[in-house]
Amino acid sequence: MGTSLEIEWLGRVSYQDGLRIQERLVLEKAESGGLCDRLFLLEHEPVYTIGRSPDQSSLRDVDELPYPVVQTNRGGKATYHGPGQLVGYPVLDLRTRGQDLHRHLRCLEEGLVELSRRVGVKAQTREGLTGVWVGARKLASIGVGVRRWISMHGFAINVCGGLEGFAHITPCGLAGVEMTTLEQEGAQGLTVEKAATLAGEVFRGLLC
Question: Comparing C-alpha atoms, which of 79, 73, 78 is closest to residue 151?
Fold first, then answer.
């Protein structure tokens, strides 16, 4: 694409801090088109998030959830973020990328499939479902937001560790879905930071 992209590893941050970083850059980019596009890679403290939809049923019993809930301005239903999961927030000027949100979503999926391939996991997309899967098991979720054609939010791919946080909700509103991690699917010795390094390499090729 010939577009400048800066990639930054933030480490572990709260969801609210990650949101503030995005919102500040989205505002700056919307008002001044000269700023570089950015991809923030990070890990969150345990939290549930859900888009601003009238249908909040994917949270199930909110009063019984073990972690806080944040309602946010992305698409999609409830999901869980926590340690062991790599989160990516591409803040991109889609005005220079054809103003094509569908293309943006497919690009994120393509990158996650390639990241998985590089660690020996055969992942794929599924017709009619946003995200990345290994067979019938869901490996990565995608939910984006757009303001004045500047993208925010992005993807979350489960790298290693437990998935207990997902057990209290209906992930992405998909009843009966089984979540998985790269580690469970055979990737060995992979940390979130190592996965972030690979993600940076993959998405630099796809988003530049």
Answer: 73
Helices (H), the chain: 15-31, 101-118, 192-207
Nearest-5° angle of CA 149, CA 150, CA 151? Answer: 110
Q: Which tokens belong to 51?
A: 């888009």
Please list the active-site residues.
Answer: 172
Helix, strand or coil for residue 44? strand
Asked if residues 103 and 97 have their Cβ atoms less than 8 Å apart, the reply is: yes
Q: Which two tokens stand for residue 93?
A: 């000027």
pTM: 0.96
pLDDT tens sequence for the chain (208 residues): 557 899 999 999 999 999 999 999 999 999 887 789 999 999 999 999 998 877 899 999 999 999 999 999 887 899 999 999 999 999 999 999 999 999 999 999 999 999 999 999 999 999 999 999 999 999 999 999 999 999 999 999 999 999 999 999 999 999 999 999 999 999 999 999 999 999 999 999 999 7
Domains assigned to the chain = 5-207 (3.30.930.10)
CB 159 within 8 A of CB 140: no
